[in-house]
Amino acid sequence: MKPIYKFLSMAMLFVAVTLASCEGEKDLVVIEGNLPIKTETLYMVGDATPAGWNIDAPTAFTPSQEDPLVFSYEGPLNTGELKCPLKTGNWAGVFVMPVNNGCKISKSGIDDTTFSLMPTGNPDNKWKVEDAGTYKLVFDLRNWTVSATYISE
After folding, report:
1. Whose CA is closest to 105, among 44, 53, 59?
2. Could you give the C-alpha distances from 108 to 18, 96, 111, 124, 150, in angstroms and in order?
3. What is the pLDDT of residue 10?
4. Is 13 helix (H, G, I), strand (E, B) or coil?
């Protein structure tokens, strides 16, 4: 067999294999919006929290048994500020923060139910607790939402 025929045979085989492998491909799926924040831990620090500004031992949220990306805290909050690191011991780490600095948490709930993820803690946005008392905070890291329910004084 002449070299040109060998080349053409190989080329045709390559084209046939390539075309056959494309038959099972799927359409491109574009995900709109934010991807879930994959973490096993969420904490809060600030003068509004029981732990204060102690980044080495912040107040922990509890992951939900139904959805491990939903974290909750039920307990006392003081008047003051708070923000939420994903890990302990690092002020330059990743934080869950309000979109706008000073977002209010009060007896009537929370001003804005969305949050943002700051990979270096900058800008340094914080929530502002206006009414001291017992609250239930729920962070849904799958849908990037937060809720605050005032329970009692």
Report:
1. 44
2. 62, 22, 9, 24, 7
3. 64
4. helix
Q: From CA 105, how far away is CA 37, in angstroms rounded?
A: 23
Inform me whether the pLDDT recorded for 22 exceeds 70: no
CA distance 148 to 145: 10
Tokens of 113: 């139910």
Burial level of 83, CB count in 10 A (0-12/13-18/19+)?
buried
In angstroms, the CA 102 to CA 91 distance is 19
What are the φ and ψ backbone dihedral angles of 86, each rounded to 5 degrees? -85, -25
Contacts of 21 (CB under 8 A, 6+ apart): none
Token code pair at residue 41 = 């831990």
CA distance 48 to 50: 7
**Helix spans in the chain (H):** 3-22
Helix (H, G, I), strand (E, B) or coil at 132: coil
In 3D space, the residue among 77, 76, 97 whose CA is nearest the CA of residue 85 turns out to be: 97
pTM of the model: 0.78
Please tell me the distance from the alpha carbon of residue 111 to that of residue 20, in angstroms, as a whole number.
55
Q: Tell me the two tokens of residue 74.
A: 């039920």
